[in-house]
Every structure is written in structure tokens, then in C-alpha cells.
């Protein structure tokens, strides 16, 4: 009897412990909120504080995070379609495997952020700060990085087909194996890029103002027709 009682007590304690690790989708937005796997579509969270929030696998479609603080938050594998992160602080945030289209990170702080294998098509990264961010293996078709900071960022094996890198700061950025089909690099300074090859350069769209690394030559097909 005593043995059975102990087993029941252990089961109750285990259930309580596991329940505390589950997401609390009804909680109000706050630092360290646990919204893992929750549906949080079309909310207005602009200017709020969600530092270190857990939103892995959450559905954040159309939610407005403009000027919000999400430092160190985890949005891995989240659906961020049409979400707005304009002027948001996502420094050291995780967006690995996050996916969506037509979303905006205009003027956002993404320093040190992890965007590995993210799938973000037609994303607006204009003037975003991606210093030391990791975008390795990310799908970034038609992404707009004009005037963004990609200093010491990792873009290895990323897909930047038809993306815009004009006037972006790519100092010491790594593009080992990056796919650059019709990537717009007019006026971009690539002189300190790491890993760029002549083969990659051949399918890009640059112009006379594009600065190339030593040993690489401008393709004969430059400039490309207007998009």
C-alpha cells in the first residue's frame, strides 16, 4: 500500500513539474513570456518589452512588433508572415528556421541574431543592423538589404537570389557558397568580403561603382537590365 501511495505521489509531482514547462498562451506580453507554439496573430505589440520571450513555433502572422524590445527572444521556427519588426530590438534573438513572406525589419537591430535556415522571402531589411548576425543557410529570395549593416555577418550557403545588397555595408561578411543569382550589388563595396568567387560574381548584377575584392573582375554582362 505504501509503495502504491508513493507511486501516486510521484505521478502527481511529475504532472505538476511538466505542466510548469508548458506554454502559457493566455499570459500578457512581458519579458520572458512563454508563448511557445501559441497563436498570436494580428496583435499590436509595438513598443512593448518581450525580452527573452519564448515563441518557438508560434504563429505570429501579421503581428506588429514595431519598436518593441525582443532582446534574446527565441522565435525559432515561428510563422512571421507579414509581421512588422520596424525599429525593433532583436539583438541576440533567435529566428533560426523562422519562416514568412512580405515582412519588415526596417531599421531593426538584429546584431548577433541567429537566422540560420530562416525562410524569409521578400523581407524588408532596409537599414537594419545585422552586425555579426548568422544567416547561414537562410532562404532570402528578393530580400531588400539596402543600406543595411552586414558587418562580420555570416551568409554562407544562403540563397540571396534577386536580393538587393546595394549600399549595404558588407565589411568582413562571409559569403562562402552563397547563391547570388541576379543579386543586385550596384554601388556595393565588396572589397572586404570573405569567400566570394568569380563564379558567384558572374551571375550577379553590379555596375561600375561596385567595389570588388582583389583578384576578381567585373562580369561582361554588367550592368544588368533594370528589374
The strands making up the biggest β-sheet line up spatially as 1-2
Are there runs of 5+ residues with pLDDT below 50, and where? 1-21
> What does the largest sheet look like?
2 strands, parallel
Broad shape = elongated
Task: Kindly estimate the percentage of residues that lie in beta strands according to DSSP.
Answer: under 5%
Per DSSP, the total helix count is: 2
Measured between the Cα atoms of the first and last residue, the distance is 78 Å
Q: In which range does the helix fraction lie?
A: 10-25%
| pLDDT averaged residue by residue | 91
Q: Count the E strands.
A: 2
Structural class based on helices, strands and sheet pairing: little secondary structure
Rg, rounded, reads: 21 Å
Helix/strand order, N-terminal first: HEEH
Provide the descriptors you would attach to this structure in a database record:
single chain; 227 residues; little secondary structure; two-stranded parallel ribbon; 2 strands; elongated
Question: Could you characterize the architecture of this molecule?
Answer:
This protein has 227 residues and is mostly loops. Helices cover 10% and strands 3% of the residues. It is built from 2 helices and 2 strands, in the order H-E-E-H. A two-stranded parallel sheet has the order 1-2. It is elongated and about 60 Å long. The chain starts with a helix and ends in a 25-residue tail after the last helix.
List the helices and strands and how they pair.
Layout: H1 2-19, E1 99-101, E2 119-121, H2 198-202
Parallel strand pairs: 1-2
